[in-house]
């Protein structure tokens, strides 16, 4: 029997490279679960893999994989130069190291490159200091999700973001230094704003101001630890999932009028939390509670630190109280 008619042995069948025979689209999907450095390293596997990484649509770079900032910067410059403006789906810069910061003159240029590559999901996570994000190039008809951590932004940035990115649906800012006091967007569906005044920084605002949120399409809202910012909800009747964590720095006094609970008439899941023995917050929210309409859609309620009694606030915690 000639060799060409022989069936492959078990060993040959096991060792055959079936992954390399997959279409580029599937290989790109597999590589989207890798970091950018790991994806580039696949070029040494075989000639088939040499240039696959050039057309990656998901670039996730973690600074902890590099021994120095110099090597990290050189890698980012090279990878973006080699791939050109191939359309991106997601672009992430993750600064996991305490000794190396994302703050570098070229970092904003990389973000600009991603936006010009029609990125849809953009993530910048700093863990050492605060990264100063430039607002000037945030003009995109493709950007839908923006996640920021330990980033410093101006009020102008938020204004330009909503006007320059008309399809933006999700915005998350955690431990960020944000000078804006107004969030106005007709397309935003999910907003997370958590400000802990990180790294011992001074408070952003010198005096109490209203934090105006005017988002008619918003579905999910999470506000937490906003010093000297009194939440003022405008046109948020579409919100179905809301979470608030308030403290003594949220209101100038117990006489402040707010519309937090009363603005969420269609919410299905509501979480309110503030620390025990916080009389100021409890008085403000109690006054707002009297203005509430019937919550016909409310299914899950979490009240951390207080609940409503006959005429007072009791300091207890209710977990997942289901409303009929």
Describe this structure in words.
The chain has helices at residues 10-15, 24-31, 36-41, 69-83, 107-116, 155-164, 279-289; strands at 58-62, 90-94, 121-125, 131-132, 145-149, 151-153, 170-174, 177-178, 182-184, 190-194, 209-214, 220-224, 229-234, 241-245, 269-273, 300-304, 307-308, 313-314, 318-322. With 324 residues, it is α/β, with parallel strands linked by helices. Strands 1-2-3-5-7-10-12-14-15-16-19 form an eleven-stranded mixed β-sheet, with helices on one face. A three-stranded parallel β-sheet has the order 4-6-8. Strands 9-11-13 form a three-stranded parallel β-sheet. 20% of the residues lie in helices and 25% in strands. Residues 308-324 have low confidence and may be disordered. It contains seven helices and 19 strands. Strand 15, helix 7 (279-289) and strand 16 form a beta-alpha-beta unit.
Q: Which short descriptors sum up this protein?
A:
324 residues; alpha/beta; eleven-stranded mixed β-sheet; elongated; disordered C terminus
Give the topology.
Elements: H1 10-15, H2 24-31, H3 36-41, E1 58-62, H4 69-83, E2 90-94, H5 107-116, E3 121-125, E4 131-132, E5 145-149, E6 151-153, H6 155-164, E7 170-174, E8 177-178, E9 182-184, E10 190-194, E11 209-214, E12 220-224, E13 229-234, E14 241-245, E15 269-273, H7 279-289, E16 300-304, E17 307-308, E18 313-314, E19 318-322
Parallel strand pairs: 1-2, 2-3, 3-5, 4-6, 5-7, 6-8, 7-10, 9-11, 10-12, 11-13, 12-14, 14-15, 15-16
Antiparallel strand pairs: 16-19, 17-18
